[in-house]
Every structure is written in C-alpha cells, then in structure tokens.
Design goal:
Blueprint lengths: L1 E3 L15 E3 L5 E21 L2 E18 L6 H14 L3 E7 H4 L1 H5 L17 E8 L7 E9 L4 E9 L5 E3 L16 H8 L1 E3 L18 H12 L4 E7 L6 H23 L6 E5 L12 H7 L1 E8 L1
Parallel strand pairs: 1-4, 2-9, 11-12
Antiparallel strand pairs: 3-4, 4-8, 5-6, 6-7, 7-8, 10-13, 11-13
Length: 308
Amino acid sequence: MILRALVLGCFLVGPAAALELSLPAAARLTAERNTGPDRYSAPAGIFRNGQVVTLEVEGDVHRAAWRLSQQGLTPLQLVRPLRRQLVDAGYEILLDCASQTCGGFDFRFATETLPGPNMYVNIRAYHFITAVRPSVAAPQEVLTILASTAANSAYLQIIRAGEVSDDEVVTDAPVPIAPAAQVENDLGNRLIQQGHAVLRDLEFATGASDLNDGSYASLQTLAEVLEARPELRIALVGHTDSVGGLDGNIALSQRRAQSVRRRMIDSYGIDGARMEAEGMGYLAPIASNLEETGREENRRVEVIVLGE
C-alpha cells in the first residue's frame, strides 16, 4: 500500500530551520548518492498482511551510509540520540520499530538499502525510524534512519527525500559509490521475489575454479537470506562463455559453483545439505558471446531458489 505525500497536508507549518545531525565521532562515511528529481518509498508502518505501507515522496533524494568499528553497540544506542535531535528539530515520528517488531527479514527486504559492503543489515539487530518534517508546500521532507549492529561494527543509513533543506550531518569526507550500484537491484529482494539472482561481485582467476580470497557482499547477503529462512534450499549454478569445448566448460563452471558452496559453508556456517552446486558451461548465456562485454557477463555464478 502507498500513501501519497499529500496526505500529510494537515501538518503544514512555516519553513523549518536546517537540521544538523550529530553522529558518533568514530562514524566513517562509506556511501553517498544524491539524485533528483527522484522518488523514495519511505516505510510508514511495519510489515503486516504481506506488505509494508509506504509513504511515496517525490523530490530530491539524499542517501548516505556510515560505518563504526566498535564492539558491543546496540541499534537503539545509535538511534536514540538521532531520534531526539529529529524531535527537537520539529520532525514528526511516523515509524519507530526494532528488527522483530518491524517484521524481521520481510521488512528489511521490502525497504530500500544501500548495497554492501557500504551498508550491512543484521536481520536480528536493526532499528528503523521514519520521520516527517512538515512544510508549507508539498512534498514535505521525509527522513529515514536504519541502524544495525554486528559483533565488531555498526552501520547507519540516512535517507532524506522531498523538499530537502540544507541539513548537515557531521562526518568525514564522502566516499561515493559507483553509479551502477543501484539500491533497486538488492540481491536478497530479487532472490525471494524472482527466484534467482546473479552473484555479480565474485572473482575467479582466469581459467581457475577457486574463488579468490576476500569478502563478497553478495555472499554476505545470501547468508542473511538463508539464516532468516532456515528451510530455504538453493542451487548454485556456474556459467561460462563459449570459448573452449562444452565438456571442459561444464566441468569448470561446476567447480566454480562448488567453490562458492564451500565458501558459504566455511565462512558463514550454512548447512551444505541446503545447497546444490551445478555447472551449465556455455548453455545458458545472458548476453552475446560475439563481444567481450557479453562474454564477461556470461561468466558468472547464479543462485536459484529450489524450495522451502
């Protein structure tokens, strides 16, 4: 369900002063993206009856995320001072919920989130706030805060949309993300809604089957989905371009899928019985093999939902 921004016309007041949000001193900006005119669907309620009620706002949209390398924090510790600053600045709090109260996995994957590793959401430990600053003209400004914590770090995401004022967030210099990293392409959301998704950030040496060392945001997200849905079963399917023979490419693609499966078991503790590993070689291209850009697209590992 979508609530249009105009429904809040009853809150109309005079122009508001600029807000200065004060984040913890250790916060490091990891991503920033400003677009406009744009549209943002801000959650206005928890996940209920299979959906999240949203407030759809058009105008400028400012998205940013921060990371804190600090142990022992809770999402509420991050949110409370920011919530207080919003109320003091005249914002109306529309939604204020914690992970399970919000709707856990379902709420998180129905909510716009900047892509990892810039923003990480622990399904079991996050807090969400939606606040509105009234304006004499629609659209009013909507601001959302998503805070999440893990064992050794914490993350904050702030999205402002509509009639965005000259607010300031006290932080370090920005580290912009690539324009191609669109939040609409969230892997977890695609996997559940469409039944399959490509793990696009994986890296293998040319002609090799072992997954390169390092952390991959796609595998972290996949682990979150599997942890949140303990009965979900998947297949990891390797694909190649058309260079070389079919038998060799099928074998290589299956070894790469098996390498990803081993990483999910060893690094994330996922039960191997829930994951199959298969190889298709060059039999299922998603782009033309006549060009290098197409061949690069075809060299991939895809995850497919088998059942629950």
